[in-house]
Amino acid sequence: MTLDSYHVDKELSWLSFNERVLQEAADKSVPIIERVRFLGIFSSNLDEFYQVRFADVKRRIIIDEERGVESHAKELLSKIQAKVVKLNQDFDHLYNDILLEMARRHIFLVNERQLSDHQAQWLKRYFRSNILPYITPIMLNKDVDVLSFLKDAYSYLAVQLKKEGEEPKYALIEIPTDELERFVKVPEPKGKRQRKTIILLDNIIRLCLDQIFSGFFDYDTVEAYAMKMTRDAEYDLTNEVEHSLLENMSESLDQRLTALPVRFVYQRDMPPEMVSKLIQVLKISDYDSVLPGARYHNFRDFIGFPNVGRKYLENPPLPPFESADFQLQNNAFEAIRERDILLYYPYHTFRHMTELVRQASFDPKVRSIRINVYRVAKNSRIINSMIDAANNGKRVTVVVELQARFDEEANIEWSRVLTDAGVKVVFGTPGLKIHSKLCLISRREDGVLRDYGHIGTGNFHEKTARIYTDFALFTADQQLTSEIRKVFDFIENPYRPVKFNHLIVSPRNSRRRMYKLIEREIEHAQAKRKAGITLKVNNLVDKGLVNLLYKASNEGVKIRIIVRGMCSLVPGVKGVSQNIKAISIVDRFLEHPRVFAFENGGERDMYISSADWMTRNIDNRIEVGAPIRDPRLKDRIMEILEIQFSDRAKARVIDKSMSNAYVKRGNKKKIRSQTEIYDYLKHVERQELKNAEKLQHDTPPVKG
């Protein structure tokens, strides 16, 4: 049997990851409002799956058909469809269970048929004043090209107007969630203050259909049914030389807006003739996913479901804390110059990063700032500091990744704002995404330039830094900062030869370096020296790396893996991967960092990186991994990983069956790693402050 037999299709592995998200919604130990929000995360994930991964499988089928070859993708598509149907059924049952559980907590999510007369009248007035101005039905007739305006992954109401003896008329109404909140709190009658009633915007529109159509159309009955369409999110970049990347990306976004659908979800009691009409106007093919569903679609809005009840119905806050290393110095530069600093978001506050660039923006010693951004917050303090720095006469370069999927439009706008402010904006090369998380600040100190660098696993994004776990290394190590400078030069001149001795940089040396590090562990194992590999990644699907891990396992290298999402590797197979164990952790924070640790005969090497172990990240993107050199920080990262491997609350076993079984607790303490890590790091920071205070107290004053 070939090693290819031990590679799980990444699409099926991805659906298995989303099933773990659904497990969190099903977990009764999770506060009920958080369970509702996990339904929203599951739905949002599934939208992106169809936009990207399902669409890719569909394209592979079409290409294989055009080439006249047998397509494995057809069989894969069938497996995907079956799995999605099962997940959607589980979702529907779970949603109903959660509604009942919320009702026990006196929170009622109602539809338009469950209102009192008083509430219905209040909502009709509310609709006329607050919602009707945003409603414009689109009538479905031969003069209307639905695909030219229908928004991707938005929820719509498909409306049927019927009059005796006439053909029914059809219309589409967009649920205007861009302008309005999807959840509306309905007033309670006197004496029922404990009860909280919420209604979806969709159902308010259903209640008030007559206000929309009456006087314009003659009908006996009007009915509305939910539907949603998902488009292929890929796009083609034009190869015309005279087009800039900015122009190409703008055109490509227009292509996405008119891309053909890959999924059509409709309310299961929608009349068959209406379903047929919509399939026709949406140009749904035999390879697209057509799914009957429940009364509501676009559950991604449920990520923001409001807690109208008691505080205990959602997770207790874990407020981020400050790093002692930064606290103990007068400014960020003094702190970083003292020693390398490692932050772990969202446990540490992201304010240290925003404060670093704020200080750099006006510090008279700072000469230049270079940063690359992939995704940033809507009101980004990072970007504002870049503009402030330019206004203060600093040389500022911002590398903006225009190809960051689903953030392209925002990044195009940011690039224009920055350019207008006098910032040098660099876009990189089409087809070579810049996914590294770098910042380099040059400062004149004692007559020479000194560089301060940041290398991270996550984006410079204030919002995601509160919900994603990520490492950020701040360093003044000139070996590392000189190579960060080389990366920025490489981004601007990707075809100029460049060598990296310390950083692992895709696509320059990542595959070679990763292979070499794994092969070194094999040599240590063969020589009976200490050998082992510990990995933490989002995705592990690159065949070359997976096969080399199989080889290492067979040579006796002990391998432990924490993988959040896709995992093509199959652990625990005798003769293939018997020395490999893998888990996945899904909890209140999204696990996002990449860490690679190699035992190296007892002299452990450790790296943090922006790169997952996917072919695209190793060969087709600009990614950066940095060695952790400070033994103190190595130990800290390893302690965090050990806590995660000891998780007995949120860790699932990764295996060939993709059953997502929880790691068995046995007689061990029930450890929930994310809260355990919070307590561990908080203790570390307190201890650092105490040690500094003791040192200051014990150090005698210097005599004049």
From TrEMBL:
ATP binds at residues 45, 468, 564, 592. SUPFAM superfamilies: Phospholipase D/nuclease, PHP14-like, PPK N-terminal domain-like. An intermediate of this reaction is the autophosphorylated ppk in which a phosphate is covalently linked to a histidine residue through a N-P bond. It catalyses: [phosphate](n) + ATP = [phosphate](n+1) + ADP. Residues 119-305 form the Polyphosphate kinase middle domain. The keyword Protein transport does not apply. Its cofactor is Mg(2+). Residues 8-109 form the Polyphosphate kinase N-terminal domain. Residues 332-495, 503-674 form the Polyphosphate kinase C-terminal domain. Pfam families: PP_kinase (PF02503), PP_kinase_C (PF13090), PP_kinase_C_1 (PF17941), PP_kinase_N (PF13089). Its EC number is 2.7.4.1. This is Polyphosphate kinase. It comes from Salinivibrio sharmensis. The gene is ppk.
